[in-house]
Amino acid sequence: MKETDFKDNSTLELFKKSGGNILLSSVDALIDWGRSNSIWPLTFATACCGIEMMATGASRHDFSRFGIEVYRASPRQADVIVVAGTIVNKMAPVLKRLYDQMSEPKYVIAMGACAVSGGPFYYNSYHVVRGVDHVIPVDVYVPGCPPRPEALLYGIMQLQRKIKLETIANPRKSPNT
Amino acid sequence: MDNTTLKEKVLSLVPGAEFLENKQYITFIIPVEKMHDLARNLKNEPEFNFDYLFCLSGVDMVKYLEIVYHLESTTHRHELVLKVRTADRENPAVDTVCDIWKTADFHEREVYDLLGIKFNHHPDMRRIFLDDDWKGHPLRKDYIDEVNIVEL
Predict the structure, then answer these.
(1) Chain A interface, mutation test: which of B148, B149, B150, B151, most A Cβ atoms within 10 Å?
(2) Which of A94, A143, B29, B128 has a beta carbon 3.0–4.6 Å from B109's, enabling a disulfide?
(3) Total count of domains within chain B
C-alpha cells in the first residue's frame, strides 16, 4: 500500500494543520520532531519475529536511519516496545511489568501475526495470549509472519506520524497510568 | 558396535523386548519393569557405554502412554531408541532413569507436567513449566479446556 493511500490518520493531520495556538504549535513541532526521531526500542523478542527485528536493525535495513538508533536493554531507557513474537500466558505478566517500567511517553508496536492476534499456529491452545492488546495498549499493528524488515520500517514510520500529532497542551497518557 | 550386533545383544539382555522394523534408529519396546535394569546395563557395560541420553519424551497414543528414550554412546558412536508403554491412564508410573543419566531429571519433569506420567524414585517430581496449581495435563488427548480451546 502506498503511503498516499493510507488515510487512516490523515484526518488528524489535516485537523492539526487547520489551526491552533501559534506559540504552542511551534514548541510542539520541536518536541514532536525530537521525540519521533529518537524512539529507542526495548530489546524484547520472544520468537522468530525477533530475528526479523534484528535484521531491521542491522546494516542492510538499518532503522537508525529513522532515529530508532539503538536497542536499550533496560525498559527505563526505552521509548517503544516492539512485541516480536508469541506471548504465552506465562510471559504476559512479564511483558506487562516491562511495559509498566517504561517511562512516559511510551509506545507499543505489535509485530507479526502472533502479537496481533495469537498467530497462525498455536492460537487454539491452552497457553497462548490471542493478541498482545489483551495485555498492553498497542499503537501500531504490523501484520505478517514474520513481517519483512520493510514492513516493520513502515510500521515505525506510521508510529512517527502518530507521534508528530502530539501536543503538549493535551499530553499523551497511557491508559493505565 | 554395528546395528545388527547391537540388536542381538539387547535382545539377549531383555528377552521380552519387541523390535520395531524400519525405523531410523534401532528401536525396542521394553517391558516397564525391565527398563531400569536395562538402562543401568547399557550405561555401565563398556561394550555398550551409552553415556548420553539425548532425548526423553512422552507420547499420548490414546490407548496407552509411551515414553521414548534416545540413547547415544559418545565413544562407540552407536545409537538406540527404547520405548516403554503404560496402559494405565489414571495413574501411570514408570521408574526414573535420572539416577543413571542426570539429564533425565528435567525431561521427566516435563513429561510429568504435560502428560501426567509419574516417575518412581524421582528426587523432585513436580511441574516444570506450568504453575503448581494447574489442573490437568495439557498434552493429554483427553485434556479439556473450555475457556481457551475451541473444539473443531
Answers:
(1) B148
(2) B128
(3) 1
Q: Do B138 and A90 touch (CB under 8 A)?
A: no
**pTM above threshold 0.90:** no
Local mean pLDDT, 10-residue blocks, chain B (152 residues):
86 88 90 90 90 93 92 92 89 90 93 92 91 90 84 76
Q: What is the CATH number of the domain that holds B17?
A: 3.30.460.80
User: For the residues of B69-89, what is the DSSP string, one character each?
Assistant: EEEE-TTT--EEEEEEEE--S
d(C-alpha B6, C-alpha B42), whole Å: 11
Query: Which positions in chain B touch A90 (Cβ < 8 Å)?
Result: 129, 131
Output the nine-digit C-alpha cell for A28.
510542539
Quick check: bond before A146 cis, omega within 30?
yes
Domain that holds residue B31: 3-92
Reported ipTM exceeds the 0.90 cut: no
Does residue A107 sit in helix, strand or coil?
A: strand
- Would B36 be classed as within a structural domain? yes
